[in-house]
Structures are given as structure tokens and as C-alpha cells.
Amino acid sequence: MNSDFMTLIAGVIDWFSQPMNWQGPGSIPEHVLEHVTYVVISTLIGAAIALPIGIGLGHSGRGGLMAINISNIGRAIPAFGVIILVFLLAGFGVIPVIVALVALAIPPMVTNSFVGMREVDPAVRQAAVALGMTGWQRLWQVELPIAMPLIMAGVRTSAVQVMSTATLAAYVGLGGLGRYLIDGLAVRDLSQVLVGAILVAVLAIVTELLLAGVQRLITAKGLQ
Amino acid sequence: MTNESRQRASAEDRDTHDSSAIVFEGVTKRYSDGTVAVETLDLTLPAGELTVLVGPSGCGKTTTLRMINQLETLSEGRLLIGDRDVTSVDATRLRRQIGYVMQHSGLFPHKTIADNIAVVPRLLGWDKTRIRERVAALVELVGLDETLARRYPHQLSGGQQQRVGLARALAADPPILLMDEPFAAVDPIVRTHLQEEFLNLQRRVQKTIVMVTHDIDEAMKLGDRVAIFSQGGKLAQFDTPARLLSAPASEFVVDFIGADRELRRLALERLDSMELDAGLTAPRDEIVARARSYLQQAGSGGIVVLDEQRAPLGWLDWETLKQADDRARIDSLPLKAWRHRLYLHDNLRSALNALISSPGEVMPVLNAQGRYVGVIDQLQLTRRLS
């Protein structure tokens, strides 16, 4: 058992130190790039759908419960199932993967942005109306800046979830860091599986840190 | 200036003045569930005066206030500011011309104090220099320290936040100011202080102010006129505080003003409106024998002893004088001190309060320099009330 573990670690170190794993087709940079591309595209499309819904409903205060319930049901649907379903409907390609990841990215962003907007103090909301701000001015100058920390928390949750789930792309023959997991399991090369897992974990942490930095930049100083 | 142009100028003055009077004509507010918040209200709030709307909760006073800047719509009737029907004016434009102060300051937590105050000038598109100068002037006007301007609302105390709320409302120098329980959320000591400063401010700016409160004391203290509402949005009486006290229109008004109506009437008058008694006084170097003879002649129970500046030193009563050595100076005797100092600018309610705890039957009254001007006794106060 112990020597198995040592062999495994040695295998991982060996993998990372092979120059051939750092360049050309199937190399670590290539898989990382593929992986990050899936994540960025899916999270951006997800945000483009989820944030207007959550922010719009939160601003008007109507239909929020329904949106949260629907997005919670969305959370219960397994991403793997969606990939297979869309794969069967749309055939081979990157679309099934993106659709599944977008579906995964939407719920946390809808819920958080809705809650963030509703959490704005009613007195502050009322003051904005009473001072003569238009609906758009209230949204951009008052509600959005105050809701920003919660909205960004939703974006971070989505991005990290999508980052770890994007490994599923490899199941339908695409690239990304899932390749190491699938290929490693297929040939019972646990070192390769562990390499994939480590890379996904590191990317998830980097994502979280990067977005935390973005959040600091765009959140008003008075709210930090 | 020719006579004609002078006349025109004064007509214009009157116009701008009158243009901020607020007129309710048969205004009713009914909600979709049938409850009536305000019922056929006819009320004219004069320009340049502070009107307080007061009443028990659910009497429609806040709804009435909020109709003025279209935060609430009217179900029936007309609401005019000057000769403009408010419903014919675009709501956001109207609101930028009307200051609004609320109970919880409603400051924007993500903006600095200076940026909070600058909200309406920015909406109106003022240039940067003008905004900066205006903000600085307002910070001073409401009595805030200028170093607070760069802070955020959560770094300020409740009282300071209310000051910022007031500055924000006054930023674009609106002719009308609406205040919804502006002092309710601060502690009693800060409240009294803010109320007094606010009255001083109003004397300088002379805006048309409408204030809502549930506190009848606050209404009587601040209002040039007070509108008392009863349950169901009916106006019970609209009058000056003095008239409300001396001629209440109904049992409801009497009850609402409270059992201590007489005390409230006392609170509306100041000592300098009374004719004070000269009183019996003696300088501190007077000898006992002479003081005794003064007392016997006047038939008084005691004498006010004054120092060289004519400031009262204490009360010397007959019991003490009787036992003292004839040739002693009276300031060597045990004098009784007053717990309160009473000045000419104090009101009669404070005078009564001071009298109750006074060691003698009279209470000395001082001028602004702290010198003795006369005495007041309970009989004078009672006569004033009848």
C-alpha cells in the first residue's frame, strides 16, 4: 500500500518532468488551454443569461421566487445527463458540452444576483426614488453597486463549479483536463489520473483568486 | 429703480414665494383593497412655513406627505404646488425640486458623505466646481466636521447621518423640504439638539417645510402650524400650536394633545413676555439687622442675596435670619442655593419646574449676562393660564 502510493507519487513527478508533456499535441498547456476555453465560454454565456434575469427580477421585486425555484431544479439535473442528452440530439462536437456547462453556471448566478438586489436596504431604495433618480439611474448608481459583492459571489461559485465539471468534455471525445482522467482510467494509469485532478484543482483555486481580485476592483470602497 | 419696476419686482418675489405653497383640494387616497388612507383633505400649507403633520399611526399623515412628491398617487382631488398640479409634472423632475429627509437617513452606503450630498446636483448636471463648493457649504451649514466628507455613512453616528440626510435634501436648494419622522431614530439628547439646530436653520433658509411626526411635543415645538389627523385619514384641526392649545376643535384634539395641555401652553411662552416682580434683594455685605427689617416690612419669607455683579448668591430665609447675630454680614450665614438657573429666554414651563424645586416661594430670573432682573412666583404663572 505504502509502496503503491510512493510509486503513484513518483509517476506524477515523472509526468510533470517529462519535456514531451509540456509541448505539442496532447501536452499539459494544450489541455489547460482547451479546458479554460470551455470554462470561459460557458461562464460568459451563463452570466449573459443569468445576471439580467436575476438583476431584473431583483430590481422589480417580481417573480423572484419562481426564478429561484426553477434555477434550483436546474441544479438538481446532472451535468453528465445533459451532455449525453444534447450529444444524442445534436451529435458530436463542442455544443453539448457548452450547453451542459451553461446550464450548470446559471443557477448560482440567478439566485445570488436576485438575492443581492433584494438585500439593498428599502430605505436606500426609497431615498433613490425620492431624490429623483430614474429607474436606470437607481439600477446603475445605487442597486447594482450595493449588490455587487453578492453578484460576484455567484459568479465565483459558477466559475469554480464549471471549472471542475468541464472535465466531462473528455467523455464525448473532446479535450481539456478530463482527458487525463479518462485516458488514465482506461489504461489504469493512476499517475495520469492524479495529474489531471491536481491540474483541475489548481485551476479552480486560480479562478477563485482571480475573480476575488476582480471583485475587489469593481466593488465600491465603502462596501469593503 | 422706478416705482413701476419696484412693484414688478415685489410681485415677482411674491410669485416665487407663493409658488411653493402646497394646496390639497379634496384629496382622497384609497388603496385597491378599499382602505382609505386620506379622506377628502382640504389643506393649504403656506409657503416659507414649517407645517407639522401629526397623528396616531395609520392616520394618513405619511401618505399625505408622500403624495406631495408623487411617492404616492392620488385617488381623487387635486394637489397643487403654487399653481402647478403635481400630477401634471414629470415625477423625477418634480422630486429633484423637493428635498426629502427620512427617518433612517437612507444614505447610499457605497458613496462617501460628499458624494451622498452631491447626488441631486449631479442628477441636475451641475459642473464639478459648483458641486464641490455647494457640498462644502452644506457640510458647514448642517454642522458637520469637514473631515467627515471623505468618510462613508457606516463610519458616522446616527445623529451625524441625519445631518448628512438633511444636507443631501438641501443640496440643490429646493424651495420645499419634506421630512418623514426625521428625528425619530436618534436618541433623545441628540434629538433635542438636532431639533434646536434645525429651527435655527429654518429661520435662516425659510423653506416651505412639511414634517411628519407621531410626537405631539415635537409638533408643538417645531411647527409654525400643526395639522392633527385622526384615524382614517381625516383632518381633525389645522392651526398654530397656541390656537390648538387654547381652542381645540374637538375632544379628539384635546385627548391627542394630552392631559398636560396647560403645561404645553406654558411651554409656548417665554419669561421675557411676562412682567416680572422686582422682588426683595439685598447685597451680600448687608448686615443681619437691616435684612430682618426688610423682610418684616415686605412680609416675605426670605430674600435674594446678590453679589457685587448682581448675580444671585442664594436664598436667605426668615428662620436663618431670626437666629443670626444682628451685626453679622448676611453672606456669612448659610444661604440656600437654587437647583436651576432661570433666564429671560426660558419658557414658562421651565420656570414652573424651577419654582417647584426652589427653596423659597419665588424664583430669581437672570438676563443673558447672568444678572438679576426680578422674580417670578406660582401665582403669576397661574394667572397667565387663566
Automatic annotation (TrEMBL), chain A:
Q: Which organism is it from?
A: Kushneria indalinina DSM 14324
Lineage: superkingdom: Bacteria
According to the record, the signal peptide region is none
- Give the record's family classification: Belongs to the binding-protein-dependent transport system permease family.
Q: Which residues form the ABC transmembrane type-1 domain?
A: 32-211
Which cell locations does it reside in?
Cell membrane
Gene Ontology terms describing biological process: glycine betaine transport; transmembrane transport
Write down the CDD domains for this protein, in alphabetical order: TM_PBP2
SUPFAM superfamilies named among the record's database cross-references? MetI-like (SSF161098)
Xref: Gene3D superfamilies: MetI-like (1.10.3720.10)
Q: How does it sit in the membrane?
A: Multi-pass membrane protein
Could you name the Gene Ontology cellular component terms for this entry?
plasma membrane
Q: Name one Pfam family in it.
A: BPD_transp_1
Q: Where are the transmembrane segments?
A: 36-58, 79-106, 162-182, 194-214
Record key words, sorted: Membrane, Transmembrane, Transmembrane helix, Transport
How is this protein named in the record?
Osmoprotectant transport system permease protein
From TrEMBL, chain B:
What keywords appear on the UniProt entry? Answer: ATP-binding, Nucleotide-binding, Transport
**GO-annotated molecular function:** ATP binding; ATP hydrolysis activity
GO BP annotation list: quaternary ammonium group transport
Concerning PROSITE patterns, the annotation shows: ABC_TRANSPORTER_1, ABC_TRANSPORTER_2
Q: Could you tell me which Gene3D superfamilies the record lists for this protein? A: P-loop containing nucleotide triphosphate hydrolases
Q: Does the keyword Ribonucleoprotein apply?
A: no
Q: Where is the ABC transporter domain?
A: 22-257
Which InterPro entries does the UniProt entry name for this protein?
AAA+_ATPase, ABC_transporter-like_ATP-bd, ABC_transporter-like_CS, CBS_dom_sf, P-loop_NTPase
- Keyword Ribonucleoprotein tagged: no
Similarity section: Belongs to the ABC transporter superfamily.
Q: What is the name of this protein?
A: Osmoprotectant transport system ATP-binding protein
- Source lineage: Bacteria, Pseudomonadati, Pseudomonadota, Gammaproteobacteria, Oceanospirillales
